[in-house]
Write a structure and sequence with these properties.
- With 314 residues, the chain is of the alpha+beta class.
- The chain has helices spanning 69-79, 105-120, 127-137, 191-201, 208-225, 228-247, 258-272, 296-302, and strands at 6-18, 23-25, 30-31, 35-50, 56-59, 62-63, 89-95, 149-152, 165-167, 175-180, 278-280, 287-292, 307-308.
- The strands form 3 sheets. Strands 1, 4, 5, 6, 7, 8 and 9 form a 7-stranded mixed β-sheet that branches. Strands 11-12-10-13 form a 4-stranded antiparallel β-sheet.
- β2 and β3 (30-31) form a beta hairpin.
- The chain binds (3R)-3-hydroxy-3-methyl-5-(phosphonooxy)pentanoic acid.
Length: 314
């Protein structure tokens, strides 16, 4: 197999607006439902070279211990593309955002690695194939192949060949997103485990696929018609419903900190006072805010610690 001396690639973080929550196949990362996300300008840059005696992984300038779950997940992914068992990689990866802080760096990480692998081995994969390969590393990574709004179609086939992401051509230049970072610590429970536990034990989970079907219709319509109230309400509702399945799992998964609840309350109060402000959350304690350009200064006044998350439209 031909390969280059070095290959380097970037992929964006994506923030799910209608969440991927639940798998129909855990090995292939096949989801129960479709999901929809927005890609950001920040993300992960990964470079790949041939290594010597074992895979060597550097994350944000530090060598990653082989015992860590990050190392093991990455090696499992590399096993999918290793030309033979004695071929090793040296991988350097850098995140613009905190790893495992609920800003979905595993999505940008596996997407960047997929794009780097494609360049390294000169595979010339199509976007569909890239999305399917990224999905094997982390489900949500299949959406980080594209900028802007991206929809991951769940697919029906057992081999997962129809489960990949596609871009939605609509853009929304007035849409704004920001993060309230409340904790940068590694999560106590991985999103993978939280998802599996919600599916297996939450009495609310059986309703989730129906809810996603409804939310997806509303979100697509809101994007087409630029109906921000519908967009925000649906995104917020979907995120809180996902957390409700975690809260009602056993043992419960509760990512929220006191400060998380404080931020949620403040968003709800601001809305009662007439501000068009909504929230979404990944599987973690941090909160992302959704608002329009016209309200930017008002939102910043209310949340001085707001970290702007710039959306990548192209
Ligand atoms: O792709 P994973 O296994 O990291 O799961 C991501 C799950 C959420 O971020 C909570 C939702 C989503 O659609 O990204």
């Amino acid at each position: 197999m031909n390969y280059r001396e070095e290959a380097c690639a970037f992929a964006p973080v994506n923030i799910a607006i209608v969440k991927y929550w639940g798998k129909r196949n855990k090995i292939l990362n096949l989801p129960v439902t479709d999901s929809l996300s927005l890609s950001l300008k920040v993300g992960t840059t990964t470079s790949l070279r041939e290594g010597k005696e074992k895979d060597e992984i550097e994350l944000n300038g530090k060598i990653v211990a082989p015992e860590s779950s990050f190392y093991q997940r990455t090696v499992r992914f590399l096993d999918l593309v290793r030309p033979h068992p004695h071929f090793f990689f040296t991988l350097k990866t850098k995140n613009d955002i905190p790893t495992a802080a609920g800003i979905a760096s595993s999505a940008s990480g596996f997407a960047a690695l997929t794009l780097a692998v494609n360049k390294f081995f000169q595979l010339d994969l199509t976007k569909k194939e890239l999305s399917c390969l990224a999905r094997r590393g982390s489900g949500s990574a299949c959406r980080s192949i594209y900028p802007g709004f991206v929809r991951w179609q769940a697919g029906k086939l057992k081999d997962g060949s129809d489960s990949y992401a596609k871009p939605i051509s609509d853009t929304w230049s007035d849409l704004r997103m920001g993060a309230i970072l409340l904790s940068e610590e590694e999560k106590p429970v991985s999103s993978r485990e939280a998802m599996a536990r919600s599916v297996a034990t939450s009495p609310l989970y059986p309703f989730w696929p129906t809810l996603v079907l409804q939310d997806m219709k509303k979100i697509v319509k809101s994007i087409r018609t630029k109906d921000f109230a519908l967009f925000g309400q649906t995104a917020e509702h979907n995120a809180l419903a996902m957390h409700a399945t975690m809260h009602t799992a056993f043992p419960p998964v509760f990512y929220w900190l006191e400060k998380t609840v404080e931020v949620i309350q403040r968003v709800l109060h601001a809305r009662q006072d007439g501000l068009q402000l909504f929230l979404t959350m990944h599987a973690g304690p941090n909160v992302k805010l959704l608002f329009l350009k016209k309200d930017e200064s008002e939102v910043k006044k209310l949340f001085p610690q707001l970290l702007p998350l710039e959306i990548a439209w192209s």
